[in-house]
Amino acid sequence: MTSKKFSIVIAGGGSTFTPGIVMMLLEEAERFPLRKLILYDNDEKRQDILGEALKILLKERAPELEFIFTTDPKVAFTDVDFVFAHIRVGKYAMREQDEKIPLKYGVVGQETCGPGGIAYGMRSIKDMLELVDYMEEYSPEAWMLNYSNPAAIVAEATRVLRPDSKILNICDMPVGTLRRMSQIVNTTPDQLEVSYFGLNHFGWWTSVKDKNTGYEYLDDIKEYVAEHGYLTQVEVDTQHMDESWQETHKKAKDLLAIEPRFLPNTYLKYYFYPQDEVEHANPAYTRANEVMDGREKNVFSAAQKIIDSGTAKENSFEIDSHASFIVDLARAIAFNTGERMLLIVENNGAIANFDDDAMVEVPCIVGSDGPEPLAQGKIPQFERALMLQQVTVEKMVVEAYIEKSYQKMWQALTLSKIVPNARVAKELLDDLIEANKEFWPDLK
Ligand SMILES: NC(=O)c1ccc[n+]([C@@H]2O[C@H](COP(=O)([O-])OP(=O)(O)OC[C@H]3O[C@@H](n4cnc5c(N)ncnc54)[C@H](O)[C@@H]3O)[C@@H](O)[C@H]2O)c1
Ligand SMILES: O=P(O)(O)OC[C@H]1O[C@H](O[C@H]2[C@H](O)[C@@H](O)[C@@H](O)O[C@@H]2CO)[C@H](O)[C@@H](O)[C@@H]1O
Ligand SMILES: [Mn+2]
């Protein structure tokens, strides 16, 4: 048990994931003791519901923990060791637009991929920079562990616009898939050591080894995935019980078919089989609606029950697998543990034949000075060409933000593997500009 106790602000305190993360922090109190926990959000009404419920729960389970929830950045970011950032600019109402507008043009509508991700990225940059600036103004020694999506564009924007900031960009898709892989080979995720390369939501596993014996499980897992995808006997993700996510895990088999050398990140399905996504999509009811009717409703009604009953003894929130590794990451920084984790970092040669200034997702050794990427060698031309196209889209969105450039945003949409041609890209862009006029810079 360490003596040091930490102070964390969760930026995006009204997030549907906040209660699960708080429950996980309570669970991990031995390994990562807290002295202060702050929720910060720019939507007071939304955050207050979770804040009031968590105040009751924490009084009962961690009375010694200082807990506040606020919309005042100075209060939120002062005297903190870590900023856990998971904001969703525009909330689910805008995710719904990101997913539905492209479908009007027969194009995949998705939270972080294609036109939906591009729109979400353009919406997120200003708010993310604001969080970084608050952190550096009020707690200059703090680290930001950023979950906020679209992680690829957010990571690129902070690389360009806040190059010296202490930000770790993370994604739990590979963490969730590793849980599935560990089940497939009848071990536990902590026993597996991976090699992986790609961009966020756009990558491949090249090795999945047993940490102790060095046994390479890649072929064993591929044999299973070729038949079942990543669908496992026991569901490992409370978040992914919905049919749409089950379909996604099953689709991994078709992704393996196009690239049999490596194991795929499930997000590749939007780039390789967009027609299947559009065919099966319901333009009137997308993933955003599922979450609004599911997770969002469940989390806020659980909170209301706690408030109404005045106790969390009967009702409570569920611990969320969603952010279990966020503590490992914070501990790696705090205690220089040298944890090996996938992070989204500047390439700088980790992928030998890819741009140094690309934000890539690779295994890193994490210590007090941050991540050290592990060399993944040269990648094949097939993946290299796909990644260059996608990373250029991500870079052009950030350039379009900086230059307020309509032309660059049109080019970014046109370049996306998911958008069929420049005419659809322009129609999409004009529609997205209208839907995002409250959030995007005025593009000229
Ligand atoms: N990196 C990953 O693998 C991963 C996994 C899960 C979720 N996420 C991301 O985490 C984020 C939260 O997800 P959610 O579904 O809980 O969203 P949510 O809409 O439930 O919560 C987001 C919260 O952020 C707040 N917010 C928006 N802009 C803000 C700003 N400028 N300052 C402070 N607060 C602000 C909103 O008011 C809202 O309360 C999203 O970006 C989501 O994509 C990422
Ligand atoms: O459709 P949603 O909002 O439920 O999920 C979208 C997010 O999906 C991934 O995160 C998952 C993760 O893969 C899973 O293992 C579990 O931890 O839940 C997470 C949240 O659902 C993806 O990595 C995120 O970027 C997406 O936002
Ligand atoms: Mn992710």
TrEMBL record:
Its cofactor is NAD(+). InterPro entries: GlycHydrolase_4_CS, Glyco_hydro_4, Glyco_hydro_4_C, Lactate_DH/Glyco_Ohase_4_C, NAD(P)-bd_dom_sf. The active site is at 172 (proton donor), 267 (proton acceptor). Keywords: Cobalt, Glycosidase, Hydrolase, Iron, Manganese, Membrane, Metal-binding, NAD, Nickel, Transmembrane, Transmembrane helix. Pfam families: Glyco_hydro_4, Glyco_hydro_4C. GO terms for biological process: carbohydrate metabolic process. Substrate binds at residues 95, 149, 287. Mn(2+) binds at residues 171, 201. This is Maltose-6'-phosphate glucosidase.
